[in-house]
Description:
eight-stranded parallel beta barrel; alpha/beta; single chain; binds phosphoenolpyruvate; 10 helices; 246 residues
Amino acid sequence: MKKLIAGNWKMNGSAASNAALVQALLSGSSDWQCLVAVCVPAPYLAQVRGLVAGTGIDLGAQDVSQHESGAFTGEVSASMLQDCGARYAIVGHSERRQYHGETDAVVAAKAQRALASGITPIVCVGETLAEREAGRTEEVVKRQLAAVIHANGHCISEIVVAYEPVWAIGTGKTASPVQAQQVHAVLRAQLRAASAQADRVHILYGGSMNAANAVQLLSQADIDGGLVGGASLKAADFLSIIAAAQ
Ligand code: PEP
């Protein structure tokens, strides 16, 4: 399977800097042997859609509403994202779980809405440092993924999973390739138990992935790509990670 490298720009960017970043990404050959996506702030979906049209870069959003439509001021629905050309939507990022109180059930509903509109949800799971230190990593990630499997059983092979240890996000601390692979193997086994198509599911690693650590992480058996935060904002760094995935 081709690896998938997805950038998560988080709440960064401007019309000018988005154009410069995408131009820099496309300045070399964009005939990549892996899948590449950028998940951009909602107001810039239309702009970036235009910038990446006809290139090797796919468009993604960073969240999606759990509701279909109606009186949910400020929310963005899956069909709106689809209208704007999004192929992916991140759901259950730890920053949303932490700062916006998203529960496993909410994350599962968001994944369901995305799938119903033909958008691939990138479902984030991951343990906090306290949970890892208490030996609860497996239990936590399995519980988070189980909620999504429960709500989306028949089309679970259509999702992307991202293992993002919370203690590694934006901290410069990366899970070692062995630590990451251990958790990815657990997630793969859980997906296999749920679907005969589980081996089609990309399981991405996220958490301070950078040009220096990407090759080793991406060479692990069950690491099928990366969800990249900080390093996706610098064209040279993101291109090095893409190169590591070829
Ligand atoms: C993320 O936000 O999904 C992420 C992995 O961030 P960073 O690469 O900056 O740790």
